[in-house]
Structure of 3-phosphoshikimate 1-carboxyvinyltransferase:
Amino acid sequence: MSELWPAPRPTDPVDRVVSLPGSKSLTNRALVLAAVADGPSVVRRPLRSRDTLLMAAALRSLGTRIEDTGGHGAGDWLVTPAPWDRDADVDCGLAGTVMRFVPPVVGLADGTVRFDGDPHMRLRPIGQMLTALETLGVRVDDGGRGALPFAVRGTGSVRGGTVTIDASASSQFVSALLLAGARYDDGVDVRHVGKPVPSLPHIEMTVAMLRQHGVEVDDGDANRWAVAPGPVRAVDHDIEPDLSNAAPFLALAAATGGRVTVTDWPAATTQPGDELREILTLMGCEVTLADGDLTVTGPPRLTGVDLDLHDVGELTPAVAALCALADSPSHLRGVAHIRGHETDRITALATELGRLGSDITEREDGLTIRPAPLHGGTFHTYADHRMAHAGVILGLAVDDVLVEDVATTSKTFPDFAAAWSRAVHGTPGDLGAPATTTAGTSP
Ligand SMILES: O=C(O)C1=C[C@@H](OP(=O)(O)O)[C@@H](O)[C@H](O)C1
Ligand SMILES: C=C(OP(=O)(O)O)C(=O)O
């Protein structure tokens, strides 16, 4: 059994200012686009966590140079494209962005690239995307499994063209094809058929970043995205803080009736975490965004919510934990696809919240959560960073919650446990500084 971590519980309502590390989704898109661009570019304030280090390692193994520049504390990344002229092995870990974003660009390499990852990664959906790649002219060897491990045999160029795909399992299938498409001979024209594509803001993020790189994208019709062939201009990116990882920190205010300010909250963003402003307002919090500071003040009692989280599925674990603390019922809907995330998050949340006393019902596409007295115990995390977030949120209001393997948060957040302890207990530091002191820089 992995280590059990006693989730810190504050004695009083908190009053904190926190600065968060960069966005996983923005960092990994910036790295891929920089690697296929027509010159060197800088990724400023990148997230340095397991998912982004795996992405950097994958691109380096192909030949791309990614160097620390020393800018902004831990260092910006200078990315210099180079010919991909070798065989390589890519470790996807448990990163959906690595498993989905790298194979389509690897079709452009001159060499065989083998992909594998953590045990659970072999269960996460990828088959439809591999089939789409074959349609576009990329040779894939997956032994008929439609899953990891597989190899992409790059020939230096990809024909591209029109492809139909069922992307209802993951928006990342679409993002992945679009990120590579400009470098395909005929570009790419992706048409989705099937149940609705989840996480549309993440596709909008992909389209917005492609346009920043001078790539022409037509997204005028629903369920269709067309990328024109052409160069990907080198562009420097400033990475925004990870707004989905803001969820537990804002929940700290919501669950304790306290106040938390997250600094550098973008005025406009494609990150789905921005939806937390609306969700927390519905739960009874006061939410203000002024001069780049997002401040959430928690209510005396949280209100349950009826929410379709289809577009923002990655917020479900944190929202479900808050719902378990609310004094009226909640219905979380539209997230069948999160059964294919780091773990089956619907079953995992029903099991673990239920274990600590929550009156929770699992449905095919979501959860129903009714008020019930909660108690301490072990909260299993299934190697899922966001399950750990759910566990620590519960621990804000319930004594003796033991979070299993809190280190799994390193997927998208370096040193989460230390940052969380500082935020809960108010010890000055670079995260979770008391409101009277200046927040530090992101790690
Ligand atoms: O493109 C991305 O960066 C992401 C897309 C979403 O994936 P799904 O569409 O598979 O939910 C999201 O949940 C994931 O955390 C990040
Ligand atoms: C679903 C997630 O990650 P991934 O990028 O591995 O799909 C997530 O971070 O919630």
Observations:
- The chain has a mean pLDDT of 95.
- Residues 3 and 405 are 5 Å apart (CA to CA).
